[in-house]
């Protein structure tokens, strides 16, 4: 059972809406990550954080933003959703650089 | 930059068949290697990992993988698959000492086991 929680599990919204995808972990991990995954494609890192007040952009350019005000919480925000944002978003955390990632169940976002 | 190639996007096997999923990576330095699995409706989870030492590593549920440095490969194997092994399997690599911010995933292999 995952110790990292993502909400909502599914989301369908209209173009132009602002949305926040929630991610929380109870393991006290400093490192947290957001990945974007399309069917049949590899996971692409879009944001990561090394700890409170630390946020960095990943390999894949994304119009989303993240914040890390508390260790356990790493929300992702889209200010104005577009159909091109339709995808699955996976949140993950790890204890340190060489530890495996713990993933949440993901949020499947559809923008109409 | 590193890259990961998984040769088979879809694999269909019967129960008790042997399994080998290919994974090749490109990177000139020392690497950490991972296989992650995602069962239907569940989150991605670690199947096994290789950091150093014995190149044959064993993971959960009877899976193993062999790191062959000369071939830049980290193929996943299981002698006899079960219906419950139906899942998506992802190979991943990062540079030794690098964190998950440097983790590169393959496109995944969708494995279906027929009863």
Features:
heterodimer, A: 112 residues, mainly beta, 7-stranded mixed β-sheet, 4-stranded antiparallel β-sheet, globular, B: 115 residues, 6-stranded mixed β-sheet, 12 strands, 0% helix
Shape of chain B: globular
Contiguous runs where pLDDT drops below 50 for at least 5 residues of chain A: none
Distance between the termini of chain A: 32 Å
Instruction: Determine the mean pLDDT of chain A.
Output: 92
Instruction: List the uncertain runs of chain B.
Output: none
The greatest interface between two protein chains, and residues involved on each side, is: A-B, 25 and 24 residues
Provide structural commentary:
The complex is a heterodimer of chains A (112) and B (115). With 112 residues, chain A is an all-beta fold. Chain A is built from no helices and 11 strands. Chain A has strands spanning 4-7, 10-13, 19-25, 31-37, 44-49, 56-57, 65-66, 76-78, 87-94, 102-103, 107-111. In chain A, the strands form 2 sheets. In chain A, strands 2, 4, 5, 6, 9, 10 and 11 form a 7-stranded mixed sheet that branches. In chain A, strands 1-3-8-7 form a 4-stranded antiparallel sheet, with no helix packed on it. In chain A, strand 4 (31-37) and strand 5 (44-49) form a beta hairpin. Chain B has 115 residues and is an all-beta fold. Chain B has strands spanning 3-6, 10-14, 19-21, 23-26, 31-38, 45-50, 56-58, 64-68, 73-78, 87-95, 104-105, 109-114. In chain B, strands 2, 5, 6, 10, 11 and 12 form a 6-stranded mixed sheet that branches. Chain B contains no helices and 12 strands. In chain B, strand 10 and strand 11 form a beta hairpin. The model of chain B has no long low-confidence stretch (mean pLDDT 92).
